[in-house]
Q: What sequence folds into this?
């Protein structure tokens, strides 16, 4: 008697086929999310470096936006600047002068825009969390179902030798291995992406605070070439940047 994955598929019923297809779909979805979110993190980190090194060196806000290159939908820094500029220039248009001060209105608008960026960062993580937590149990259910039918077939045949039992049972355990093979990359990918999102979120929050201070005062501190490292050529220097 021959054993293997082909034998498991050919001898399996509709439930076995459905479980295998579900695991395959889970695997495709998790890897798609991992690759997409990984590319997104790389893009966000590149924009973070531009914001830290070049954005605040420009003399006008429009020129500063051009340091990010060709406008690309989904750039969090450009969207934060757009939200801040709209709130700064259109405060009086919302009839909230007597309710919120310009500082409060700008802080509120930037906070909403920042929360939207955080929500965008977390998109897709639910898929990885769901796959990582459910795939082992889906595979285990396939194993239990396969063992159940294998034992029924052995009982009907009236043969209970070790050779007759070990083959079908071993094939059924393939479902458990398949469930783990789907779940482990999803869990590792979730942890890696969540850790990367924390770093991007911290940089976005720092940029948002700097943008708020700039829009309210028109002055900004020129960052050093290496953030966090003070050098003789990177002493605190203040300059005016035109908003218009």
A:
């Amino acid at each position: 008697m021959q054993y293997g994955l082909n034998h498991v598929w050919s001898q399996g019923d509709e439930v076995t086929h459905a479980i295998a297809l579900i695991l395959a779909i889970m695997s495709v979805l998790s890897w798609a999310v991992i690759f997409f979110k990984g590319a997104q993190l790389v893009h966000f980190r590149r924009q973070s470096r531009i914001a830290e090194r070049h954005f605040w060196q420009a003399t006008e806000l429009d020129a500063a936006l051009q340091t990010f290159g060709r406008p690309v939908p989904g750039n969090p820094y450009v969207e934060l600047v757009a939200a801040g500029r709209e709130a700064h220039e259109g405060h009086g248009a919302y009839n909230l002068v007597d309710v919120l001060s310009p500082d409060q209105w700008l802080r509120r608008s930037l906070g909403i825009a920042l929360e939207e960026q955080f929500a965008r960062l977390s998109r897709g993580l639910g898929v990885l969390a769901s796959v990582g937590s459910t795939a082992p149990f889906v595979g285990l259910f396939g194993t239990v179902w396969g063992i159940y039918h294998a034992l029924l077939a052995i009982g009907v045949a009236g043969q209970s030798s070790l050779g007759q039992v070990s083959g079908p049972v071993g094939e059924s355990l393939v479902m458990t291995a398949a469930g783990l093979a789907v779940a482990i990359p999803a869990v590792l990918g979730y942890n890696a992406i969540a850790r990367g999102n924390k770093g991007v979120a911290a940089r976005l929050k720092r940029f948002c605070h700097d943008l708020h201070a700039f829009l309210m005062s028109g002055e900004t501190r020129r960052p050093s070439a290496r953030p966090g490292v003070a050098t003789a050529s990177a002493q605190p220097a203040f300059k005016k940047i035109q908003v218009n």
Q: What stands out?
A: Residues 220-241 have pLDDT under 50 and may be disordered. Helices lie at 5-11, 14-53, 61-66, 76-89, 102-122, 125-157, 162-217. The first helix runs from residue 5 to 11.
